[in-house]
Amino acid sequence: MKRNNETVEGPGGLVYTARLPLSSATLNYPTDLIRGHCTKIRSPWRALPAGKITGIVLAVLRCDQRPGDLAGGNGIHRTTVSRWVHEVVGLLAARAPRLDRALKKITRTGGGIVLLDGSLIRTRRRTGDANRKNYSGKSTCHGLPLIALTDDRGRLLRVSAARPGRTSEITACRHNHLTAHLRATGLGVIADLGFIGLDDNDDPDADPAVITGYKTARSRPLAPARNCRTPCWPQSAPRLSTASPT
C-alpha cells in the first residue's frame, strides 16, 4: 500500500463544500470593509474576489477551519489565508467603539446602568512557552477571555480585546480601567459574583460603581436583607395583589 504524504494544498487533496449559517448582513459588512481597504492601499487585485475572501475568513473564525484546508480547496497558499484572517480581524477591530465613548453614549440616551459579563473562547492547545499562559484554571481548558458590556436591554456595546486564558475577569477589567470610566460618566454596572472586589473605592459615602451579589458559605448564611429569596418587607405589611379584578 502506497503512503500519500502530500499536503492538503497539493492537487491530490479531497475538496468538499460546506455551508455557513450566516446572514447576508454578516457577509456584506466585512466584504465592504475589504473593498474599502483595497481601495485605500491601492491594491485592486486579489487572488479571489472580496466576497469569497470574506467566506474563507468567516469559515476560519466561525467554524475553526484550518487555513491549509481552505487554501487547498481554493487554489491559494496557506499563508495567504492567514494573512486575510489577520487583515479582516484588524479591520473589524478598528470599527469597535472606545470604552469611554460607549459609556458616554449610554449617558446621553438617559441610561443609568450597564451590564457586565465575561466569557472564555476556547482555542487549541499551543506549543512551547505560549501553552501555559493560555490555560484557564477556572474553566480547565485553553482559551482567550473576553469582557462584554451591554445596556440594560442586553444590546451589545463593547467587547474587550482578547487576553491570555490565565487572566481573570477582574484583572482584564482593571487593565481597561473600567471603574474609572464608570465613575467619570456617572454610570453603574451590574455583574455576577465573579466580579466581586472589582470596585475598590475607599470612600464609604460614594455610590458603588460595580453592583454584584453576595457570596455565602455553609457556616455563614446570608442575612435576610441580602438574600433575594427572602422578602425584605415585614410579614404584617400588606402585599400588592397582581390578580385582575373580577
TrEMBL record:
<dbReference type="InterPro" id="IPR027806">
    <property type="entry name" value="HARBI1_dom"/>
</dbReference>
<protein>
    <recommendedName>
        <fullName>DDE Tnp4 domain-containing protein</fullName>
    </recommendedName>
</protein>
<feature type="region of interest" description="Disordered">
    <location>
        <begin position="220"/>
        <end position="246"/>
    </location>
</feature>
<feature type="domain" description="DDE Tnp4">
    <location>
        <begin position="116"/>
        <end position="199"/>
    </location>
</feature>
<dbReference type="GO" id="GO:0046872">
    <property type="term" value="F:metal ion binding"/>
</dbReference>
<keyword id="KW-0479">Metal-binding</keyword>
<dbReference type="Pfam" id="PF13359">
    <property type="entry name" value="DDE_Tnp_4"/>
</dbReference>
